[in-house]
Amino acid sequence: MKRKLVTLMVLSGLALAGPQDNSLIIGAAQEPRVLAGDVVNAISNQSIKFEIENFLFAPIVQTNRDLNVIPVVVTEVPTAQNNRLRFVNVRPGVRRLELDYTIRPDAVWSDGRPISTEDVALYFEMGKTKGVPSTNVDFFDRATLRVRDARNFTVSLEPAYFYDLDINQVYYAPNHIMRAEWDKAKAAAAQTTDAARQAEIFRNFFTQFSNPQFLNSGRMVYSGPFTLTRWVPGSTIEMQRNPRFWIKPPGGEDKYVQRVVYRIIQNTNSLLVAILGGGIDAASSVSISFDQGRSKQLTSRASGRFEIWSVPTPFFEHLEINQFTNVQRVKDLQLDNVKTRQALIYAMNREGITRAFFDGLYTVSHTWVAPQNPMFNPNVTKYPYNPERARQLLAELGWRPGPDGILQRTVDGRTVRFEIEWATTAGNQVRERIQQFVAENYRQVGIAVRINNAPSAVVLGAQYRARAQEGTWTGFLHFAFSMGQADDGVRSACRDEEGKVVYVPTRDNGFRGLNFGGWCNEEFDRLRNQAVLEFDVNRRKQLFARMQEIWANEVAMIPLYFQSDARVFRVGLLNYTSSTFANSAYPTIEPWLIGWQSRGAQKVYDQAKYGQPIK
C-alpha cells in the first residue's frame, strides 16, 4: 500500500513539474494544409491553421480573454481618447472610420529586420489585387491604406461596419521575403482575364511560402513569440521560443514554455489514447470531441494529472447544402427548392443527435447566431423531427418509393434516385457517427446517403469547399465555422448593396467569398447591408431578427448545434486558457504567457472564469 502511495505522489509531482526541457506538447486532430505564407487565407482558413499561427505571428492588436483590445505590434490601440480614431459622415446612415497606427520601434521579424509599413502595404496589396481568392472580401473591399512613414499608417474603412472597433482586421506580410515573387505572380496574373486562372496563379504563389518544404528550409521569418523549426507532414510541427519577440511575460521569458510541438493524430480515439498515455500535455481546440472529453475513460484518470473544462464556443456545427443548379446532381435532387431542404431537415432527428452524443448538454440550433450573441432571435421557424412531414413534402415534388425503398423520380427520361452525398472531415468520430445516425433517419423516408469523407486539409481547403459550383461536393458539406464578434451574416450573403455577386464563390470571381453553398435571398441581403452599417444595437437587433427568420424559413443551411469544447491540459500548465468570444476560443492567444507553474510562470488567466470543470 505504501509503495502505491509513493508511486501516486511521484506521478502527481511529475504532472505538476512539467517537462524538464520546459516544452509543451499539444495534440491536434487536424493538420493545417499550409502555414505562415498564406497571409490572406487564399488557400485555407482552417481553425488549426489559425491556432498554430497565433504562436508564429503577432497581431497588430489582440482581443484578450476578457474581450479587452491590447496593442501588440503597435504602440497603442486607436481610440477617440488618444485621437487615433475618427468617424467621418459620408452620407446619411454611412460613416467612414479612420484608424491611426504606429508600429513599435522594437517590433522586429525573427531575422532582426524591423516590421515596417512596407509589410502592412504588401498585405493590403495582396488582399486588394484582382484575382486573389481571399475569403475576407468585405474588409478589402472597404479598406484603404495610407502610409505616412516607415512606422506610421492610417487605415480607412468605408463604410464603417458595427464590428470594426471590436476585432482586428489589419495584418502585414514580410515584404523582404515575399515581395519579389509577389511581383512576378501579379505580373503573370495580369496576362489573363480568366478569374479561375488568376486565382490558381495566386494560390501557387502563397503555397510557395507556406508548404513544409519551404518552411523547413528556414527561409521564412516570423514575428510572434515562437518560430517554426520543423514540420513533419502527418506527424509533428515544432516551434521554438523567438528571442527577438519584444513582449516579455511576467518574471522573464525563460520561465515560460521554450519549445512547442504539435502532434498530429487525426483519429480522435487514437488522440484520446495518447492523452491518457501521457504523451500529450494539452489538447488543441481541434482535438478530441466533447463526449470524449467528459468520458469516464478520461475523467476517472484525470485527478492529479489533467484539468478538464467545458468551454462554450461560437463554432456553429452545420451542414452546407449545395444549391448551384448548374451541378447536375443538385438539379436532379432539387436541392435549390426550399421544400427539399425543409424535407431534409424534418427527416433528421437533431434532438436525438444531441441526446445520443452529448447527453442533451448541447441544444439544437435553429440559426447560425449563437444564443450568447445579443443578436440572437429565439422566435424563428423550428423543424422538429417529423418524418411524415418530410415524406409529404417530397411527394409534392414528385418523389415516389422505388423497388428498394429509396425515392426516385423521372427527369428528362432518366430515373433519378434520391441519394445525397455527405462530406466531412475524416477521423472526426462524432461527425462520422452523426452521419451514420442520420443515414438511418433518412433511410426511413427513402433517402440514401453516400458518405464521401476526406482529411480536413482537403475538405476545408479552398480548392474543395469553395468550388461547389464546379461539383467538388454535390450535397452536404459538414463542418463548423465561427464568426464571433464579427457575426454579420456574411456566410449566407449573396450580394452587396451595389448588387454585385461578391460573397458566393464562383469561377467568375475567382472563388472568393464564404457563402459556399450558394443560397441567395434578396431580402436577406438588403437587411444585412443595413445591419452592418447600424451602430445602434437595438435597431441592429431588429434587422438581425428578420434575417434569422428568413434564413430559418428558407433552410439556408441545416443547423445542428453550437459546440462546447473540452479543454484538457496537464495540471500545472498556466494560461493555456479559452473564453467563448476571444479569438474563436482558441487557447493559444497571447501565447507568450503559456508556461509551467513549476518553472516560475505566473498565472494571468484562470480557466475557471471562462468555463465549467468536467469531473
UniProtKB/TrEMBL annotation:
Residues 1-17 form the signal peptide. InterPro entries: SBP_5 (IPR039424), SBP_5_dom (IPR000914). GO terms for molecular function: peptide transmembrane transporter activity. The keyword Signal applies. GO terms for biological process: peptide transport. Transmembrane segments: none annotated. Keywords: Signal, Transport. It comes from the Bacteria. The keyword Transport applies. Residues 98-475 form the Solute-binding protein family domain. Belongs to the bacterial solute-binding protein 5 family. This is Diguanylate phosphodiesterase. The lineage of its organism: Bacteria, Thermotogati, Deinococcota, Deinococci, Thermales.
